[in-house]
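Sequence in, structure out.
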Amino acid sequence: MHLPQTMSAIAISEPGGPKVLKPVTMPVPPVAEDEILIRVVAAGVNRPDVLQRQGAYPPPQGHSLLPGLEVSGEVVALGSRSRRWKLGDNVCALVNGGGYAEYVAVAAGQALPVPGSLTLTEAAALPETFFTVWHNVFQRGCLQPGETLLVHGGTSGIGTTAIQLAQHFGAYVIVTAGTDEKCEACLKFGADRAINHRTQDFVAEVKQMTSGKGADVILDMVGGSYISRNYDAAAVDGR
């Protein structure tokens, strides 16, 4: 497959608003032995991209200075040790920056096949939130069917993804959000119960909703004062 030597990308010219995003021409990235090269069809937009554009989120040392943490597209080159994928495969992937470009190199293990029910544009919005929720709630938290999951920030990207995945796998889902409207939105996404944390004590509410047991798994993107309160809201052997 013939590949160009250069590509178009979107770079951050200086910290600021959306107008600092500028088109640039740069070399197509090389492909390491355990990587694949993706011709990007779509890239997701996440809060870290916005913070990076504003100058508040510098990319990790050694990674691309371009924004963009998730993409979808076609595999157009393979590293010498990449065996899972073949040329022409449609994938979505979590990348270490560089997604706002025509091509991006990514570790082969950070890519997933595009579900048949989704377009490539839709699939670009999967990796950042689904990888995060799957790793934290299911791989580390070991959420099981019938258990209770408490999700803080229920209307965030992570929150709405957690609601849907947990419901799909048979968990009971309680969320917190900051307005009644957001609570209603969480219920529409599939949450069983929603707590307005500005007007209700989520610890007391969770205990009441679980007949005093508490939540088996808690997904917290807030931190701070919530940490100690999460212990109070957790069940025995909660995670």
